## 1
Amino acid sequence: MKNLNSNGFTTVSIPTKLRKEIKLDIKKIILKKLKIKENLSYKEISSLVSKLSEKNFHTLFGGVPTRYLSLNTGKKINQWINHMKYVNGKINSLHFLSRKDLKLRSDLNDKHYCVYFRCMRPNNLKKKISFVHRDYDFWKIETPYTYPLSPFKISKRHKLWIPIWGCTHQNSLRMIKKTHKKKIKVKYIKSNKILKPQINLKENNILNEKNIKQPIKKFSKEAILFDDKVVHFAPQNLNKYMRISVEFTIISK
């Protein structure tokens, strides 16, 4: 809790049973997308996904609504965070999907929790890092149509990032210390007709290697819990296999 308040992030342990549930759910979702019935290993799945064309990859895994975990897994995650001691809220919960998401995913209902996975294919040398951002800035530009549905009025938000497969010190999420306490200048740009926040590290005077941290030591057991005002990014994946992670927002009352 001390690191979460002072640095803006900390590591937390993920229950072994819950982690297994998440991994199994992701595997089922990916195999269904690839129209494969037999059970494949992570390396075999990684090889198939890595060989997809950019167009097919984007169709299957591009938008967040294509990567939601199942309702059952979301419920189990929600039960766990309801009692999370690290987040100091009277009530902690996941939020639901937005009206826009529900229109895109007619197979889901308005009580489906917003938990999704990310796929980062290997050796993507186009970018050194993903775009630098704070989740806080996305919430500021949501409309009634895109704003996530919630079980209560939100007073505080945190993010949780869980490494699942192929995550290493080299390719995992980077946190910039204490940026949740700084006044950050943010510009909004349109990319593919979607408004996105953009943070210039030099302009905000936060480009200091000493403050850029990857806090996880045990990738099979830990996750990163962070304030949604923390500036963060992901480096390119130089691993042989794709990197799969899970993330979601914890809302507090």
## 2
Amino acid sequence: MTNNVPSDLNQYVRSEVPGLQYIAVTADRVLFEYAGGWADIQGTKAMTFDTTLMAYSMTKTFTAVAILQLAEQRKLSLAT
């Protein structure tokens, strides 16, 4: 992981999105975490690690990608 990540994320929040949360992990530890910008579009509530974000149906896509990656690594079988 490069040292540019915090400044890159800060720049992204300033120019592209109101706020974001980002975390990079391995199986056993957190490598990096970031929360910045605003939790609301009006810019009155800061984004924190405790801010709840609505992912809605996107979690299905994330889960499918994780399952396919595990299958590719032969850590999970897709056979029923």
## 3
Amino acid sequence: MIGRQDIPETHIVRKGAGLTTHVMPTAREALQKRVDEEDKRLHALARMEAASEWLFSDAALIVEGATEQYLLPSVYEAICRVRPEEDSLAIIGPGGASNIPGTLAVMRELGIEACALVDIDFAINDAVKSNLLDEDDEHVQECLWQLAKMAEHDHDICIGDNGRPRKDKENPDGKRPAAVLREWSAQAGASSVTSALHEKLKVHKIWLWTGGDIEYHLGITGPKDVTSWAPFRAQLSERSYDEVIFDSRTVEELIKWIRGHVVTGSREANDLAN
């Protein structure tokens, strides 16, 4: 039994080819190497302490929020008939989108196959800040241009000096940035842009929700809390998933992608070691 306070200093020992073994760095060491900002290291470390299942997993799915952590295990099982833990897959929430690139790097430093799942705003914000996409990327710029056009006709949308939607202190009832991005993603002119950004981030093993967020694709319209999640999960256990999930085709593709690029990769590594 590993105590929560011991997790940051715990070494993972992995099998290598033949009879060799490799002692991986601790989570604290990996964070110091891969994450520059101290506050992000502290937040990531706290989350990793709280989600100790990654210590005993060969693969990890990094997610933004509580909706994913609550519902994805049930969605995963409904689609592929095995639970994530049966695939040695841990689902980890590092405490927000800004911590995802660093957590991905840390997992890989620890020898754990990892991928991430992000909302649409990640593409124009954190992906650029983390140098996964360039600020002058044609599809990032096209997105910003279309958002600016939306704001010209909707005074509830506030665009900041950096070209991104932001909260407007003078209009507290204005649209939140995430809501603006989701509204944009539903427009006809956005589909080619979201698809292109999706493909570019997949290169980094990051799946972008082209419809805005997980709630859109699952078909959840209520509050982002257990009052909406629990009934949805109950339906998944009682009915076929394609009757419950609004965009079942995209969600199927996501689960297949996770199993094909992360779970399979960890199994192949283990097979080579045995």
